[in-house]
Write a structure and sequence with these properties.
single chain, alpha/beta, Rossmann fold, binds zinc ion
């Protein structure tokens, strides 16, 4: 944030309260007014207008009216969005950015941000970077992927301006040789980027014996698991590895990590997003700490409003008293994609169950699990990358040590596991995003 440059404290809560005040500057003394402001804008949208009118008949307060609007799934959102329809918009497509969205497969979909909304979103990201530990003294390589109407490289670049650091727009499609040369030339000590690119860079640094040392890593777009963090500490000498907040392109940033939060715990960006967790089957709001789908409403997106949007991400509320950072709002744990929850061999398997076993083995921490049916039993195919494959027995032993759930399902004969080995970098990456799809379910019926 600009406060950092003028010598004001870098402390998280100070910045967040400044930000919320700034977003809500016209109505800061009227609680609920920011939601009311959003509802006013929704009336101008042919899609939202009738829904808001119906909610106004049955509910009084702005928050109740917001909660009375239907959940918005991705397909409905895009069916009413450009290029298919302009119904979701509240005004003309001008003075705005258009970004690609819509997941890793199929036709690209689009998200519009007015220029003002874009500035707010990148200021929020700048706040997240600053809270996570980036400072004006840092030299930061931006190795998010650029081009193709993607947001991450652009928004990271503008967020870094707010930090006041030396900003290196390297891009994730640059060859790893060149990346290392650029980082060395300016003694870069920090990276922002996608985990699969950062992991590949670390592998290249290790292979080439380069002296690149990166003290701080802020990642986004994929999950980075504890064992991988250990690998980055070992190969790059990282002291600080943090999620650069939790965001999805349709909603913008949703949550962030202060320096007191570990694992995948995130504080809600209150005043910017209204976050709910719902039962993925019934849509009922969950406040019991059980896993559910994260649903978010961006309170400042008025051109292309995103209201009660189903993110497809799995999370649960975490009870905590006021955090040591001073935050007293809601905190959630991010558990992965809803699609990543695999009910197989009688267990609920999450990618983290496999990752904790792999952490015990000398293999690349990138992997893919494929669920299949074989002889009417569940089969889990585990695809791994290594230049020298281990024996199946070694891998199974690691998996069983890493997860008691997996150990039991294998021991009880409910689940068979087969290992497929690929050369380093051999796992299929999405051409559009560079991400690995961690979980595939090829069972039918
Ligand atoms: Zn905190």
């Amino acid at each position: 944030m600009s406060e950092g440059k003028t010598g004001a404290p870098h402390e998280g809560p100070f910045l967040l309260s400044q930000l919320v005040e700034w977003i809500d500057r016209e109505h800061r003394n009227e609680p609920g007014r920011i939601i009311g402001n959003l509802l006013d804008a929704l009336r101008r949208s042919p899609y939202y207008g009738p829904l808001v009118a119906a909610a106004e008949k049955t509910h009084r307060s702005p928050t109740e009216r917001l909660r009375a609007l239907p959940l918005l799934d991705r397909d409905t959102f895009y069916r009413h969005s450009p290029p298919l329809s302009n119904d979701i918009l509240t005004g003309p497509m001008a003075d705005a950015y258009v970004y690609a969205s819509g997941g890793t497969t199929g036709q690209p979909k689009f998200a519009l941000y007015s220029n003002e909304e874009y500035k707010i979103a990148t200021d929020v990201l700048g706040f997240i970077y600053s809270t996570a530990g980036l400072e004006a003294e840092d030299v930061v390589g931006n190795i998010f992927l650029a081009g193709n109407l993607w947001t991450s490289f652009n928004v990271a670049g503008r967020a870094l301006e707010n930090i006041g650091c030396l900003n290196m727009p390297i891009g994730g499609a640059t060859s790893y040789d060149m990346m290392i040369k650029f980082l060395q030339a300016f003694n870069a000590n920090a990276l922002v980027g996608l985990p699969s690119v950062i992991i590949k860079l670390a592998e290249e640094v290790e292979r080439s014996g380069s002296n690149v040392r990166i003290r701080k890593i802020l990642y986004g777009g994929e999950h980075l698991r504890a064992p991988t963090v250990e690998f980055l500490r070992r190969t790059l000498g990282c002291e600080l590895v943090r999620s650069a907040g939790y965001a999805c392109v349709d909603t913008g940033p949703i949550g962030y990590q202060c320096t007191h939060l570990g694992g995948s715990l995130h504080h809600v960006l209150e005043g910017y997003q209204f976050v709910e967790i719902v039962n993925p089957e019934t849509g009922a709001v969950r406040n019991d700490g059980e896993p559910g789908e994260i649903v978010s409403t961006n309170l400042t997106r008025l051109l292309m409003p995103v209201v009660r949007y189903k993110t497809g991400d799995l999370g649960r509320w975490v009870e905590m008293d006021e955090c040591a950072c001073g935050f007293s709002g809601k905190t959630f744990e991010l558990l992965g994609r809803c699609d990543d929850l695999l009910v197989i061999g009688g267990i609920n398997l999450l990618p983290s169950d496999v990752a904790s076993g792999l952490a015990l083995l000398p293999v690349s921490q990138n992997f893919q699990v494929v669920a299949r049916t074989k002889n009417s039993r569940d089969l889990l195919v585990l695809r791994l990358e290594a230049s020298r494959p281990l024996s199946d027995a070694q891998v199974l032993e690691g998996l069983e040590h890493g997860s008691y759930k997996l150990a039991k399902a294998i021991k009880d004969g409910w689940l068979n596991v087969e290992i497929e080995w690929l050369a380093p970098g051999g796992l299929p990456r999405s051409v559009r995003t560079g991400k690995i799809k961690t979980v595939l379910d090829e069972r039918h019926g």
